[in-house]
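Usage

Read records sequentially. Each one opens with the input sequence:
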Amino acid sequence: MLKGYAGKFLWVDLSTGELTEETPADDLLIDFIGGYGVAARVLYDRLRPGVDPLGPENILAILTGPLTASSAPTGTRWTVAAKSPLTHTWGDANASGFFGPTLKLAGYDALFFTGVSEQPVYLVIEDGKPELWDASPVWGWDSYQIEDWIKNEFGPKAEGCCIGPAGEKLSLISAIMHRKGRAAGRSGLGAVMGSKRLKAVVVNGNRAVPVADEERAKDLSWKFTKQITGGVGYSDFYRNTGTPGFIETGVKIADSPTRNWAGVGPRDFFPQVEEIGFDAIEGLGKKRKSCWHCPIACWGEVEAQFAGRTVYAHVPEYETAAAFGSNMLNDDLPSIVTANEICNRLGLDTISAGATVAFAIECYDRGLLTDADTDGLALNWGDAESIIVTLQKLALREPGLGELLADGVKVASETIGQGAEQYAIHVGGQELAMHDPRFEPGMGLIYQIDATPGRHTQGCNWSWPEGFEVDAPGFGEKRDEQVGRGKALKPISNLNHVVNASGLCLFGYLSTRVDLLPEFLTTVTGHAYTLDDLLLAGERIATIRQAFNAREGYNPIATPIPKRAYGIPPLAEGPTAGITVNVETMRREYLDEMGWTQDAAIPTRDKLIALGLEDVAKDLW
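and closes with the structure output:
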């Protein structure tokens, strides 16, 4: 039997309250690793095409990977997956903290939720014993209240994930929260959890997870921890500043979107960006924090004063600071901390929420929204107070402006009309992450072609670890030379899928040499993996996710891209002046490499059979 796994899946039928355990086959785990790899195979098998993402037939999955809770440095990650209500495609989201390791130590590799409960419930698992409990008394509570309640009711070692009011109100940009700020944010999966009336999952346990070679695992842990602390790859950046260290740089080099993607960072938001950069954050008295057994400790907590109240929140990550900072021309750091706290407390994806508020500001600026539409609120660029009020309304789906914005830019633009669609920066319904394709054209391809559109981590920000040979320029380099980037995306993204599926954090992956993955997976599971084996597994994961979308009728080639973000027309000044993203050429290269059709990105019959997906080939061909 394969090691490195708890060895059990739990199926929870929320309509009946029935709890059923399954033992996963070794072949499933070897072929799809864990996380959203396993989820994609399972959900492809058990979901019929066309189900309502917010209906009882959708399946919500919460999963770990073989390196979650292992001695692998940064083995902290857990994944949520379902059909996305935001994009109506494959949906997944990834989070860190302590929940994933504790779920595995409580006896389960994965949880699958079906049906809809008649009343709000939460799932409790203590040392392998699962029970559904009535959540009516805590329905309506925010994630901070739920976190405190979990610790008080179930003890300091208990961990949980939950939805806030945004998820309860089925906001399509709502997140699943953990530890008051660790978020499974993308794909709108908080709304899926809310639609099932599942308020929280609480886990506690200290069961041992079998390891094939414990002594070798200890040696590898020491080896790769030394790489992290010794300056390999991006380790110094993550250890010294974390992602906030990129806030100022992103604006200066024009990677960060500015003024809802229409501006030029060095012209429009410099030197104002210094007011929200890493040094300014440090000035708030940052308290450094780490996830489960992590040697990087990339994040922290801060305290700020805004609008007469004291705000305690996670340090704004780069994505959050860009979304509520440069993209709105907002240089008020306390307001950005407050926006982060509101999203974390009420359960929103900060990327999508920030993008939606920026969209609303531009619509107001252009006269597409009037005071009658905004409840009398003047939405102006850089106006910290109106930004916070708008966000609060969105999070609570308040009648009027809140209802208009609660489901993100695509839905809001369709409601507004009048050409508002051109200011809604999204692909397939999901707001783009805060990395500009005009700076790194490969990001434009990733945003369009991945099974979860608009995502930056699926291609690992066009970055890869030391020792991994990729024939491609580095992030933002030689952006006039876009030919070849599509071909290069295949190994970059396929290995990245294995990282996500394994339960390893991307920051650890980019702070060690590439041999961490095959060496640790082999040592933990007992199955011998080479790097080529993992690249093939990553290709299989990418292909089953894409097959899920193809079966749903989603065609990424026919899906419009936001022209502004792709340099159509190009900017006239700044670091990315004159750049138009040649997404057609890059996409053609990538589809050829992957063996997917050029007209609809459908995996070909031959490719599916070569990957051992004969049943999928029969479905699609």
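Summary fields computed downstream for this record:
- The chain has a mean pLDDT of 97.
- The two ends are 35 Å apart (CA to CA).
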